[in-house]
Fold this sequence. Notes:
The chain is α+β, with helices and mostly antiparallel strands. 30% of the residues lie in helices and 24% in strands.
Amino acid sequence: MTPPSLILGPLQRYAGERAATIWVETDGACDVAVRLEDGSEHRSRSFHVEGHNYALVHVTRLTPGERYGYEVFLDGVRRWPASDSPFPPSVIRAQAPNASFSLAFGSCRVALPNRAPYTLTRSQDKRGRGTGALYTLARRMQGQPMDAWPDALLMLGDQIYADEVSPGTREFIRTRRGTKSGPGEQVADFQEYTHLYYDAWGDPMLRWLLSTVPVAMIFDDHDVHDDWNASEAWVKKMREKPWWNERITSGFMSYWIYQHLGNLSPEDLAKDGLLRQVLEAEDAGPVLREFAHQADREPGASRWSYHRDFGNTRLVVLDTRAGRVLEEGRRSMLDPAEWSWVEEHATGGFDHLLIGSSLPAFMAPGLHELEAWNEAVCGGAWGQAAAKIGEILRQAVDLEHWSAFQNSFKDLVDLLGRVGAGERGDPPASITVLSGDVHHGYLAEVEYPRDRNLQSAVYQVVCSPLRNTLGAPEQLAMRLGWSRLGERVSRALARAAGIKPAGVNWRLTHEKPWFENHVGTVELRGRRANLKVERAVPAGTEDPDKALLEKILEHELA
């Protein structure tokens, strides 16, 4: 009997001072062992979901600050690394207390091959999405000393595009069903989701990167569908489609397996009742389907937000999609229970506080005012006829960010202000919101009124896309949002709909936003913090292995 093989992974997920987790997908049920170079082995039995097998291995008893090369064995046979691997060894780096720490981050990455025509620009070829920043980062790391590598990676949404599938998944879909009806050439069910994840994470260069840099993730709309949970009317419209229930159920199932499970610390995993049920089931499909259906229909029944501590820096990652309250008049970005959790964990007492939100809290001022106006109009500020037109506009041009949930925006602004003023423990040196989604990048400094007595610097950083550049018309719209004209027009509309000023101001720290594929890195050392943003450039060739990362911006945050 042929021993099982790896389909995906290993992905290094959680990595703390004394423990780490390694995630794998295999082509059969098996015992999975992670063997460290010191000879110790850490084991887990795979679990089964509708024809697929997975395992999450807890690696324990690590020494803070130490580095451990590792291999992966399935039923006693080494399956990682391959004997002919051209890559450096995969390494677990246990966090060292009080050491410097670097976090790379970004969002919006379509799963396309790293070759022409896909590496070309949209203007060169309609299939082109540019050179991938994550791929280029992985390639650069192979020529660097380990000390220059990022210590962790944060993927801020749209890890996959269920509504813009990869060429491989498109062919897989065509072999299974017709595409003239239903969701067409978009993902329809769990099997198609698994194939899309394979295309997204299966490239050898990226597999090596994800095996050696611990990665945290959170979903955004395209992980399920464009504008997912934009409004109550949007949800009603989608639930009327005969294929939607299977799509949303499969989206939650696959997200729990491929992304959420690895976000949790070993302590949280030990308390996870759903994980216990999954491990005990012969086939966990029914268990996860019931959970996924409830997660869709009862947002407060599950919590996708989580936090991680890196030395004396806290990262709080917010779910800004699945837990929304969408009833007009009481719209909220997070349900009350999840917001209470955020308030509990987003506190002072740290050198730095990082807020991971797939959606920017502080958008281009023109877009912010436009979304606030639209929410008010959809809520009836200009009458029911205008509300219907406002809903059409909301869905047509994606008006569903924090600024389209004004009460939640004000709550977040207030929370960050209280943390920065020292009302929730010693104020951090910096409070930084890390975001994606909007397919352009920028750094904005947020200014609070003097009477708030803030002692922390507050910033919004957006790094999007990792790989999915906008076309010229969309870029023009984003530039207009940052223009004085766009801000004036949108502000006038917002005030006419009864929207009051935000109470804080924010402006770019640089001349204009950037639209190329790029990746950001926050470097933290004690009370100091530095941001570096780099874009992927092809260096005069279509060969992705000749691409380079070029610095766009470097800015001292604290």
